[in-house]
User: Fold this.
Amino acid sequence: MTLAPLPAPLPAAPLAALTELTRGVVDLHVRAELAARLAEGRPLRVKAGFDPTRPDLHLGHTVLMRKMRQFQDLGHTVVFLVGDYTAMVGDPTGRNKLRPQLSREDVAAAARTYVDQACKILDRERTEVRFNSEWLDTMKPMDLVQLMAKSTVSQMLERNDFKQRFAAEKPIFQHELLYPLLQAYDSVALDADVEIGGTDQLFNLMVGRDLMPQYGKRPQIVMTTPLLEGIDARIDPATGRVQGDKMSKSANNYVGIDEPPAEQFRKLMLVDDQVVFRYFELLSAKSAADIEALRADVAAGKNPKDAKKLLADEIVTQYHGAEAAVVARKAWDAKFEADAIPDDVAELRLPCTGEGLWLPKALHLAKLVASSSQGKQLVEQGGVEVDQIRITDVKRELAAGGTYLVRVGSKNRKFARLVVERA
Assistant:
């Protein structure tokens, strides 16, 4: 048997680039082809598409864009493709039913936010921004027929979304079968060397790879990056793996990259104590060694809240600046740290007909609780402080003529400064 000759080793620079670009990648089709194109020494055209179904990008999108930025920093051309046409068709990926169709006006409104926000990560001067309506809007019916003739129904039914719906006898609409081909044609129109997407987009990306040779193009290299789970994700105790839906606006489990600094900080502090390390791995500029050191500190007993604050600091700094991160952290500490008192505590004047006002009733009048009975229950549970002293006596009254700093709750704390006045 004659063995095939081993491929020639890559020069040092392309080899280093290959190592950098493939770090953290889940799927890669095909590594040898990427190595060969890097060795050609020319800038590659690297495409990633984003359908603007709703305004604003979130941190889940940035996992992919950070990989795009790596290509840019190595001298390659990044094509930020706004799928304004395909968004109106509707991506069936991950759907067990028909996605609602959007109007051109809906899509245009959402698309306006995408490019500016993307350039908080990408280098605007080295980013080619394109809209797939440029070529898809000009397609005639016969062009679409010819495009559809390059794929079979059986090939489309191989994708899990369609396979499951077909088996469950749920409807699959014909335009949904067209979506992967339209997205694939984007790669033909842009002459892409590489297309990047999330792992849920692998089928669509591979359709593009298969389609390009049928138009006389070299097949694109396909790379997928991990999907970032939403802020409501948890660790499965049985497997130790992160469980939860991917970050998305429809699931309301996202952190928008254009959200106010305080809101970004607050949402990131809601991330599960163990899931936060998944966020570090996918979003942070910290080295793998630094992240492992943080994980070890928490395992050794350090409060995981400190690690979450480090992540929140880094994310807010990236999108709003270091000064905004300091302000956001102080605001969070003031509102949520156990001994912190906010600067903006509301002062409320409460009438009193006797010598004092029953504390549970005062909490109700101040709208800190829904009823006096709920206030009584909260006092019994130790969830009320007056002048920073926990009160458990349900008969406690606030004497008329006094001013009292009252706090209710622990995690979702509420403060009020109550002035008890004789009626």
